[in-house]
Amino acid sequence: MTTGKPLLELKNLSIAFNGNEVIHAISYHVNPNEILGIVGESGSGKSVSSLAVLGLLPKKSTSITGSIHYKGEDLTQLTPKAFQSIRGPKIAMIFQEPMSSLNPSMRCGKQVEEILFQHTTLSKKAVKQKVINLFEQVKLPQPERVYKSYPHEISGGQKQRVMIAMAIACEPDILIADEPTTALDVTVQKDIIELLKELQAKTKMSIIFITHDLALISEIAHRVIVMYKGDIVEQGLVSDIFNFPKHNYTKALINSRPALDVRLKTLPTIQDFLNNTYKNSVITTEDRKKRHVLLYSQPPLLEVINLEKEYISKSGFLGKTKTFKAVNNVSFKIYEGETLGLVGESGCGKSTLGNAILQLDKATAGTILYKGDDITQLSKKALRGLRKDIQIIFQDPYASLNPRLTVGQAILEPMTVHKLYDNYEARKAKVIEILNRVGLSESYFNRYPHEFSGGQRQRIGIARTIALQPKLIVCDESVSALDISVQAQVLNLLNELKENFGFTYIFISHDLAVVKYMSDQLVVMNKGEIVETNDADIVYNNPHQNYTKKLIEAIPKGL
Description:
This protein is of the alpha/beta class.
């Protein structure tokens, strides 16, 4: 890292949308050959301020005061045409979601070629070679194949590498990486972090790395800025911020993620730290052992025996049949009141397994016993009755809620279908009671999903799930899209509900830190098979399989 004259400098930058100020006179700088981390939750202003640097905010509704100087030139004064020579060649950006950022109808190579044709005078042949070289540089396997592939034909991690290749194609001075690893597996996330560090060391470009995860910032950045509600509340060297945080919000960001060395009864939230109300309470190994003796002395609630799920596809001119085993010979038991953690990378088969248990996607072979009965053989009528007992909390609460139904209607609907309670008034009273139980008020009953934050929507999804008083709940990546502190709130809520209602959870995630915190037993899946299973603490502290060790090593640890 070099210091001296800043490459980029924001001075007293304020941004308002339709008169509503969201960024309040912030100032920061980026030095040449430096990685600057910007951390904060959704709505903190970290992405908005970076979009302002690139001139990507809507002109009509946006008001900007203050200055953004790049090499002495104020970017806020540039015309849209003048910005074309800055955006891409000088300052480039990698966006959070590569699938929505890449054009699905264009081959990956052609998409990277576009920026080179626009900003260089290279020949067609030279441009293609440059793209192949870029794909090699970002360590894409089989660069020639990826060049000809459409985005849907490559993995999430590979799509993000294509985005990185596109961003560095014109060798920019500054690369803005906006949550570039949020949607990725922890192992792929580690690979992308290592790649960005390697590219930065080689090219000496500066990087602004934006995330909501302070532990992740510690893996890559030199300095860090902490943003909260449009203000910078703290900034300094990563080591200083991590070891000696001054602001309560920073302390909360550090502590809200589940610790790996101790098991807390409740995770601290932002409000706990801001209000100084958090009391640290640890679950001892002895407490855990006593609980497990009681838990495993009863018969299993659900037993999965030699389960398989095979998909068949036809491809080619002659329609040749191909088979793919997404789940292969999987067996395990889950007991009433237990949380069974199911962890593995994308494509390992964990969600397919969850769908088979829910009978949303029938297994090809094997047995699923629920309270001793094989649910794979149930009639449609019997299956409908089972739906009340086995429920799911989805990953994306917005996609799983009908935007045309109010919150009250969304929770009432399954109650009506399963004929719970005597009449509408009784059901409405129960819905209000459930809303209160998940930390939402009665006033939310007549509001629509788009009026809520991501954390609130997930609470609504949980309320809808528990409305049927199920015995078993499948949580399918149900906190992976949430900010760290909101994630802590939802995990605390799930544990509280489990305690109060006696729920049993199958907790599916690619985040081993979260799964370890939530789980009694841990099942590790890879390529459709269970590779390791044991008590969650034993698996973490003494993993037997290299694949499990790889997942653990990839968890951002902080300093």
